[in-house]
Request: fold
Amino acid sequence: MIFRDQLRPEDKAILHNLLIQTGFFFDYEIAVAIELIDDRLEKKEKSHYQFLLAQENEDPSSVIAFASYGFVAGTQSSYDLYWLAVDPTKQNKRMGSTLLKEVEQRIKKTGGKNFYAETSGREKYTPTHQFYLRNNFILEARLKDFYFVGDDKLFFSKVL
Reply:
């Protein structure tokens, strides 16, 4: 697996397709991810959104996973994980964990100490909850019916 943190305009379609292929996200959620990608492409290093892409090989179009994260304004050393998606044909092979660990190392290098992830509480997301717990996050809070009735918002955290 090869990591890169520079987005290319061609990556927008690749990441869009990857998000669709996971089968986890509503169209409006994917639209938010595209807004973050557009922001990063437009503002480059001045964007608040950082991206880390995992490629299968040297070919930049061989993206198999990506994460988006960023510093939380108004905090001393906290970061949010905005997105983490892995090609469904590559899931359950520790690629998500490897990508997450690389993100954590990059955050630590900038002085980051606290890392947060939010996700849906729907049963469909049980593998996501287990993923965070396996990667030493703790469930901090649950907001009942946050997204809609029956879909709680879960907050996970990790001290780096």
In short: The helical segments are 11-22, 27-43, 95-109, 126-134.
